[in-house]
Amino acid sequence: MNLFRVRGIQISVHASFLLLFAYVAWEGWSAAAWVGAAWLTGSVLAVFVCVTLHELGHVAAARYFGVRVPRILLLPIGGMAEMESIPRRPREEIIIALAGPAVNYVIIGILMIFVRFPEGWSPFYLELSVAGLGRYLVVANVIMGVFNLLPAFPMDGGRVLRALLAMRMTYVGATQVAAGVGKLVAIAGAGFLIYHGVYMGAALFAFIIFAGERERRAVMRAEQEAEHWLRVRARLSMPIQIKETDTKPPALV
Ligand SMILES: [Zn+2]
């Protein structure tokens, strides 16, 4: 479902968002009827404004390096800036990957001017106040800022790891290693969260394993195609231009 456009970028939400909001409204309702349902729905909407800002951080950095980003897709588990390509220049990939979490830390910095955490405060109670919403958003942004920096490819931290490795080995080798490390981190993370009963978070790690594998395969395929055309070029000895700087997986960042 398309929502609106920001500077030529289509912001879309996945249909499963309706389920998320139905669930959130129900939780709010059982805590404090209409007021609870409206308040919790509004709070979750505010969190997704932060998710969108995180993605726009990636977009701003990507555009700076000349990468087009036609769409940001919001899923119940987070956002995705769909880039037309991912630069194979490690320094650029690192800056694009870090620009998202950097936005979360800026938001935390701004919120902390106004928000106070009283002693004995717990994040597990619904607070129907502006101060409560502020605390809720600080927690949400800390989770986003920390979680995204885990070296779980294709999360932002995993992209940084891949780029650091790519400075010392081939791009394909770096992707293989980063995807392998990412799977281990995701399995460990899912196990930890299942043990603590946080099933939604565990599902997110399962999704990371799936998305990491998909992107690793896309990189391998692009590499095989490039090799194929190099061979063809050698055979024909024609000056075919091969763009070796870009791969085109649907990027989860
Ligand atoms: Zn990100």
Describe this entry's structure for a reader.
With 253 residues, the chain is α+β, with helices and mostly antiparallel strands. 65% of the residues lie in helices and 9% in strands. It contains six helices and six strands, in the order ββαβββαααααβ. It has a four-stranded mixed beta sheet with strand order 1-2-3-4, covered by helices on one side. A two-stranded antiparallel ribbon has the order 5-6. Helix 2 packs antiparallel against helix 3 (130-147) and helix 5 (171-195) runs antiparallel to helix 6. It is elongated and about 75 Å long. The chain starts with a strand and ends in a 6-residue tail after the last strand. The mean pLDDT is 84. The structure holds zinc ion. Residues 54, 58, 100, 148, 156, 253 line the site of zinc ion (ZN).
Counted by DSSP, the helix tally is: 6
Identify every distinct bound molecule in the structure, by name, code or SMILES: zinc ion
Order of helices and strands: EEHEEEHHHHHE
The backbone outline, from C-alpha atoms, is: elongated
Average of the residue pLDDT scores: 84
Report the count of strand segments.
6
Major sheet = 4 strands, mixed
